[in-house]
Write a structure and sequence with these properties.
The protein is of the alpha/beta class. The protein folds into 2 domains: 174 residues, 3-Layer(aba) Sandwich (Rossmann fold); 138 residues, Glucose-6-phosphate isomerase like protein, domain 1 (Rossmann fold, 3-Layer(aba) Sandwich). Helices cover 48% and strands 15% of the residues. The longest helix is centred in the N-terminal third of the chain and has 23 residues.
Length: 345
């Protein structure tokens, strides 16, 4: 029987269509503020999977617009009773449930200082939705599995819509609108991804590497393997990895390499070559022939652009975690010790 997680992650083409239609107008309103010259920085506040979506956003927004995107540490407000100077800033608060206590406390503090709030949530009746000046509703439908999949896709999508509108790059929205076609191609990879999961399920740990625009996805893939498969997994930039952590590598090391073709092509080839020479087991999700040729396990991915790579590769990696979880006899819908809504300060 299929897991709820699998059903939800396979629904992402429809989710993206609904998310784009739902948020076109609000995205334009937010972009108008960001383009007004009155905003010099964006602050993001999120936890877990939502936090990983903000890392994707940070790379995309800074690359496309030059506007700095800062990550807020909620303990500054919730524990130390401090806070930021939000002058010339806007706060993006991202929470799938819209009920996280720390998110709401940061929002309350920011509003008291006159900061505008962009709330991004899958619950339009949540406290976050009600306290936001601008609501980006994910419209993903109820997500029942503890492991977030379709809401991650919707978060990345709506955040990239803002990037496209602020930068004036029409190709971003076009790539998002057509991402569903590539996600359909990823669905056909399920048997190969299942074979990869079967061969890797007994590896005790994983290192996940990527770089640049897909770095947030590396963090998210590592999270999925932790929560769904109980595997100790850590993510690094493929370039940062050689500044010390490379010492971890020997013939018992398992590396997942997320390597879409693009500006980072040579970096991915270089790290794959070094890992191969060191005897590491490489599981590559890539469309770069030189990477795939020296990998132990290879998933040939559809060609992607800057703007749809996170969506396309996310589905494949979510499938990998789900298939491995099932192969291990774990229920991916209800990982031990976890709940759908996590309350923290």
């Amino acid at each position: 029987m299929s897991s709820i997680m699998l059903k939800e992650l396979l629904s992402q083409p429809e989710v993206l269509t609904a998310c784009i239609a739902q948020n076109r107008r609000t995205v334009k309103e937010i972009a108008a503020i960001l383009k007004s010259g009155k905003i010099s920085q964006i602050v993001t506040m999120a936890r877990g999977t939502s936090y990983n979506a903000t890392i994707c956003f940070k790379y995309a927004m800074e690359l496309s617009t030059g506007i700095p995107v800062l990550t807020y540490t909620p303990s500054l407000t919730t524990v130390y009773k401090g806070g930021l100077n939000y002058t010339n800033g806007i706060l993006f608060a991202i929470s799938q449930s819209g009920a996280s206590t720390d998110t709401l406390e940061v929002v309350k503090d920011a509003k008291s200082k006159g900061c505008k709030i962009v709330g991004i949530t899958n619950n339009k009746d949540s406290l976050l939705a009600k306290q936001s000046d601008f609501l980006l509703y994910l419209a993903a439908g109820e997500e029942k599995s503890v492991a977030a999949t379709k809401t991650f896709a919707a978060q990345v999508c709506v955040l990239d819509m803002i990037v496209g509108e602020v930068s004036g790059n029409d190709s971003i929205l076009k790539d998002l609108e057509h991402a569903g076609e590539k996600l359909a191609a990823v669905k056909t990879l399920s048997p190969k991804i299942d074979d990869a999961a079967k061969s890797a399920k007994d590896y005790p740990h994983f290192i996940v590497l990527s770089r640049g625009l897909t770095m947030g996805l590396a963090d998210e893939a590592a999270l999925k393997l932790k929560e769904c498969c109980y595997k100790f997994t850590i993510s690094y930039s493929a370039v940062e990895f050689v500044h010390g952590p490379l010492a971890l590598v020997d013939e018992n090391t398992s590396v997942i390499l997320i390597a879409p073709n693009g500006e980072c092509r040579n970096d991915f080839i270089n790290i794959a070559t070094r890992l191969n020479l060191l005897g590491a087991k490489i599981i590559a999700f890539s469309d770069i022939k030189d990477v795939l040729n020296i990998s132990d396990t290879k998933i040939l991915m559809p060609p992607t652009t800057r703007w749809d790579a996170n969506l396309v590769y996310a589905m494949a990696l979510q499938m990998f975690a789900e298939h491995m979880s099932v192969r291990l006899g774990i229920n991916p819908d209800s990982p031990r010790n976890l709940k759908k809504v996590t309350i923290t300060r």
